[in-house]
Design goal:
Radius of gyration: 32 Å
CATH superfamily of the largest domain: Glutamyl-tRNA Synthetase, Domain 3
CATH topology of the largest domain: Glutamyl-tRNA Synthetase, domain 3
Bound molecules: glutamic acid
Oligomer: single chain
Number of strands: 14
Length: 505
């Protein structure tokens, strides 16, 4: 059997959307499951849409997720430019492979599957406008190419002359007329499309001596021996052309699988960056600062763990068929299959995303979480021992979704409150309860003793405790009194109580 070789082939036209990371992940899982290779290739033949910094962003995003390419990166982690044992197909950046593509474009012209087109931008614009005023849509294919300026309509000498003189010609695919293209997709099943609905796509441009996406993609997938093309549904309309290109070259076709879209949390339609901004969740793996300075939030910077992010992405479109929701990367490799990827779009649920992170936070050791939290504690001027921080983490981690929640949950274990929540003061700080609380605190040495003291006197436990908690935390909510006292100590507890008395009575 042929070795499984899959590729992730993003264009550096902007930061990777979470849908793009999911595509990379599914490719990676299929490669690993089958003992195959996962290849990273950058498709940057459309220079107009190039956005600086995105290639680095893509590489860093994959690295953060633990999606490690078998081919495509050099030892320093950059896109490989020189072929070696590990990267036999380098360079993996299409703009550096331009010398390769022209001969394939010409091969197609020679075999009659493509032709040279000399129509200028203005001429094409006019053809479009003419069709429109006749109530039609212009399409460059068998129905019109006979009346346009190309090597099929012009005399041979004229063609040679134009090829030599002009620098704006293109090579177009000669789409057969009225032919059924029959395709198979691992997710969508059997698909048929009539070629009359398709146009003679530009494959190569003299202007920048570069192929378009379609040609470069097919040539590279062939040269890189790709066995399975797994990509987003937005590429499905290109599939007939890709089938026909493989046929025209006489090459063996890879298998195809088009992944369902990621949909908005509410309503219909594709998940967009604007949904994230509106509803307050990230759509990008990492924070991204666009060349114009606009900043988009990222899962990493929002405090998501990479394994939680990978897990939640895996579940967007794939259904393991069991109740299990938590999967490590290794478990995903075992369990994942394209057969269990649905056809319909996967609705993104930001609350569920948080749930995943909460689960992964709970799974992490107290020591690891403490280490992650230490820098924030230091920024608040807290100098606590690692042991203490670890103990606090053990106490609070069940209540948190992100490490960044820790401070909000437990700051009063490190600092005395400066303010008291007014409505809680009105509710809990009643003179008779304060008197009981004071006596209980002063007369006992520990929280346990204090509770016994209150119980023995049949004082209202809840009311007294709420009073004490208000003094300790500045509000009526927080951890148990015993836990708070364990961390702050009796002396600090008394101090806080007296301070509250001074300020509140
Ligand atoms: N360069 C295309 C993209 O940006 C790749 C599509 C494909 O995988 O064939 O998504």
């Amino acid at each position: 059997m042929k070795k499984t070789r899959v590729r992730f082939a993003p264009s550096p036209t902007g930061p990777l959307h979470m849908g793009g990371v999911r595509t990379a992940l599914y490719n990676y899982l299929i490669a690993k499951k089958n003992g195959g290779d996962f290849i990273l290739r950058i498709e940057d033949t459309d220079s107009h849409r190039f956005v600086p910094g995105t290639e680095e962003y893509i590489i860093e995003s994959l690295r953060w997720c633990g999606i490690v390419p078998d081919e495509g990166l050099d030892a320093s982690g950059k896109l490989a430019e020189v072929a070696d044992e590990r990267n036999p197909h380098a360079p993996y950046r299409q703009s550096q492979r331009r010398a390769i593509y022209r001969k394939y474009a010409e091969q197609l012209v020679e075999s009659g599957n493509a032709y040279y087109a000399f129509d200028s931008a203005e001429e094409l614009e006019k053809a479009r406008a003419d069709a429109e005023s006749a109530g039609q849509t212009f399409i460059y294919n068998a129905s019109t190419r006979g009346g346009l300026k190309n090597s099929l309509t012009l005399p041979a000498e004229e063609v040679q002359k134009l090829l030599a003189e002009r620098t704006d010609w293109t090579v177009r695919f000669c789409m057969p007329s009225d032919e059924m293209v029959e395709m198979d997709d691992k997710i969508r099943g059997h698909i048929e499309v009539n070629t009359s609905t398709l146009d003679d796509k530009v494959l190569w441009k003299r202007a920048d001596e570069l192929p378009t996406y379609h040609l470069a993609n097919i040539v590279d997938d062939h040269l890189m021996e790709i066995s399975d093309v797994i990509r987003g549904e937005e590429w499905l309309p290109s599939l007939p052309l890709h089938y026909l290109l493989y046929k025209a070259f006489g090459w063996e076709r890879p298998h195809f699988a088009h992944l369902p879209l990621l949909l908005k949390p509410v309503g219909n339609g594709k998940l967009s960056k604007r949904d994230g901004d509106k509803m307050g969740f990230p759509v990008f793996p990492l924070k991204w600062t666009a060349p114009d300075g606009t900043v988009s939030r990222g899962y990493r910077e929002d405090g998501y763990f990479p394994d939680a992010f990978v897990n939640l992405l895996a579940m967007l479109g794939w259904n393991p068929g069991t109740e299990q929701e938590l999967f490590s990367m290794d478990e995903l490799v075992q369990a994942f299959s394209l057969e269990k990827v649905g056809r319909s779009g996967a609705k993104f649920n930001p609350e569920k995303a948080k749930w995943f992170n909460k689960e992964y936070l709970r799974k992490r050791s107290d020591a690891e979480l403490a280490a992650l939290w230490m820098p924030e504690l230091a920024s608040h001027g807290v100098s606590a021992s690692e042991d203490m921080v670890r103990e606090v983490v053990a106490l609070i981690k069940e209540r948190a979704t992100f490490v960044s929640d820790f401070w909000g949950i437990a700051w009063y274990l490190f600092q005395a409150p400066e303010e008291y929540v007014e409505k809680d003061v009105t509710k809990f700080w009643k003179a008779e309860n304060v008197a009981m609380a004071r006596e209980a605190l002063q007369a006992t040495a520990s929280a346990l003793e204090m509770e016994e003291y209150i119980r023995a006197r049949e004082w209202p436990m809840g009311k007294v405790m709420n009073c004490i908690r208000l003094a300790f935390t500045g509000s009526g909510s927080g951890l148990g009194i015993a836990d708070i006292m364990r961390f702050i100590g009796r002396e600090e507890a008394l101090l806080r109580f007296h301070r509250a008395e001074e300020r509140l009575l």
